[in-house]
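Try it yourself: sequence plus oxa(dethia)-CoA, in.
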Amino acid sequence: MKEINATITGVGGYVPDYVLTNDMLSKMVDTTDEWIMTRIGVKERRILNEEGLGTSYMARKAAKQLMKRTGAQPEEIDLVIVATSTPDYVFPSVASILCDKLGLKNAFAFDMSAACSGFLYLMETGASFIRSGRYKKVIIVGADKMSSITDYADRSSCPIFGDGAAAFMLEPTTEDVGILDSKLRTDGKGLPFLHMKAGGSVSPPSYFTVDNRMHYVYQEGRTVFKYAVSNMSDICEELAAKNKLTDDDITWIIPHQANMRIIDAVAHRMNVPKEKVMINIQRYGNTSAGTLPLCIWDYESKLKRGDNLIFTAFGAGFTWGAVYVKWGYDGQTAHEDEA
Ligand code: UT7
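Structure, out:
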């Protein structure tokens, strides 16, 4: 009997309506559209600015669209895993809130914390549950409300981030498609260079932490940049070599959308032309765990069954890796009824 593998059977996504442009940002901090476009490549980003709404709101919208598109009924969902660094609450999990909002009656659910690599880790984790043979429909969601931890007085970080969420359905297959291989890494050496100083158990919220602006992303950009380029490029090359994929065999590279210069460098090292790289950083910025599935959400209509996809990401920790997927359906015809 052929082994069970996990394949992606659909994608759903959501970005908030509110658009924060570079011109608007240049009225808030000392920056310009030109600097942001040449150094980062973000033109605008979406912001969830309605009071009282958190990451679960976007995650729920993405998962709802996913369930509608895949025709999945609430009682059929076995498991929901959400990757996020910006949960609604420290506890309970975003995933638990989704179970209620989506009316799931037979699922268990939890959040995963792996910063910008969260969705990459989720693909392998979700696939493992499917491969066990005990789970038939697994929803994985990458969602972040980065605006809730972005310091809009810090010009070196505020142009980068945006808000958004997207989700995949994973289901069993015995055909030669799906999540075929991965190489995932964590070294723990990135803590000094990328973290949030307060709000956790080491430094709980206090007047001091608020007065000293310690509840925002802290990043030593140049160092993170260097590690992101080398680690993502190396691991993509290793994964391609392990699976005997030449540059011609790769249909798409889906890189984390942190900086256009990082994306270009990875594509260059992989010897893959820009037309084969999914890019939407200019419209959404870095939505952390949201970037990879939001790329698929945007490019789905171009995907064909049998396409070879390499996903790659890098984030706080440091965490990084690459996942090889053979795409399972023709995206062009996926939502013809959705006019
Ligand atoms: O998603 C998780 C992983 N994160 C990443 O992959 C992010 C990696 N890092 C980066 O993307 C880039 O390092 C940044 C976008 C964060 C910064 O770009 P950079 O080219 O590395 O700039 P820099 O920090 O080296 O700063 C260069 C100059 C500085 O001025 P001086 O000291 O040379 O006079 C900054 O003060 O650019 C200045 N600068 C700005 N100027 C105009 C920094 N931010 C801005 C700005 N507008 N927004």
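One thing you can check immediately is this: Residues 5-175 form a domain with the Peroxisomal Thiolase; Chain A, domain 1 fold (CATH 3.40.47.10).
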